Amino acid sequence: MNKKYVVVKIKIKKINKLLVKHFGIPYRPQRLPNPVDALIATILSQNTNDKNSYQAYNNLKNKYNSVKELADAPRSEIENVIRVAGLGRQKTASIKNFLTVLKRKNSRLNLNYIKKMSDNEILADLTSINGIGVKTASCVLLFSLDRNICPVDTHVHRTLNRIGLVKTKAPERTFEQIKSILPDGIAHQFHTNLIKLGREICKPAKPLCSVCPLLKECDFKSKNMDRVSQVRTNNFLLLDSI
Ligand code: SF4
Description:
By secondary structure, this protein is mostly helical. It has helices at residues 3-23, 35-45, 50-63, 67-72, 75-81, 88-105, 119-127, 134-144, 154-163, 171-179, 187-200. Helix content is 54%, strand content 0%. Helix 1 crosses helix 11 (187-200). The chain starts with a helix and ends in a 42-residue tail after the last helix.
């Protein structure tokens, strides 16, 4: 590993420590969600908030008693069940396509076969399925399989670029860069606390830099130092709640 990567790795550790000091160690359920559930929940979460995707996920769970029932259900019915999460047709197509491919690979409709694979093999396997992108696949790796992988959503992409840990245009590039240098054992707390930072403090339009725990470490040139009287907290994370 070259010197530049070593420096970035040390900075990631420092940022992670500051985030843990500010937000704490994030909650994690004792029983991690099974990979099929995590994958479907992540599809539902695209372009909506965690509250709506959680509602849509629960609607699916209440309607269908098994993955097989869901796989056999008519598209129009699924669209209706997940309506609250938006993009019903597109999300139904992704779920249906995933379950069709899964059925071909494994008649038991589970993802147990990926557990023995390396991170890169799992990413390649899952993203080869239409409708499953890197973010969805990486969420399965982190939230179900407890791999040291940091999924990159819009919050993680924005905050990592502002802090200066990466300089990238697209979340997929951010993911690739962070994947190769993430220190061992920190993925869940780093990912979750960056999302909290992005939701509560490092907001897209007007970051609340005056109350940010990373102020001294951050490279962002357009810091907003307006005084802040109150920060709204949001602790709910879909994939640690299913
Ligand atoms: S100092 Fe400002 S721009 Fe930098 S991470 Fe904190 S809120 Fe974001």
